[in-house]
Amino acid sequence: MTYWLDVYTPMAWEDSQKIEVSVTGFPEARAKSVRRINPGDILICYMKDKSLWFGALRTTDKTYDDYKNVIWKEKLCPHRIKVEPVIILELEKAIPAKSLLSKLKLFATLKNPENWGPPLRTSPRKLDEEDGKLILKELEKRRTT
After folding, report:
1. Which residues, other chains included, contact 58 with Cβ-Cβ below 8 Å and sequence gap of 6+?
2. Which domain holds residue 9?
3. Mean confidence (pLDDT) of the chain
4. In sequence order, what are the beta bridge partners of 58?
5. What is the tally of structural domains in the chain?
6. What is the tens place of the pLDDT at every residue in 38-86?
7. For residues 55 and 88, is the Cβ–Cβ distance under 8 A?
8. pTM above 0.90, yes or no
9. ∠ CA 59-64-67 to the nearest 5 degrees?
């Protein structure tokens, strides 16, 4: 099992909820990375513009392409994967990204800690296994409180 970053905008998340978060998609430029995702991998969901970790999805099938069915209004995301929610938090309970900065390897090489956003701009992005487990654990804690 591999952990991956899956970045959403508020509008993209709203569109995903309309299809009961059964599929996630990525733009054309990310095709090569998408092909590396396998069934059973975990996608850690990050909300861009709000800087929140808010969920985790498990991939349930191989990747596929769909250029005909538009799901996300913001942009075409034809490289898709069927998913099932593992944890989805309401945004009020989500984890502020800054609260985990010092704990994640994802940010360890930053030259300027004040500019921590770039590692969270592109998805899918393979995450270090320890980072994935830590975020998943923190999401679990928030779900039960």
Report:
1. 40, 41, 42, 43, 83, 84, 85, 86
2. 3-129
3. 92
4. 42, 84
5. 1
6. 999 999 999 999 999 999 999 999 999 999 999 999 888 999 999 999 9
7. yes
8. yes
9. 130
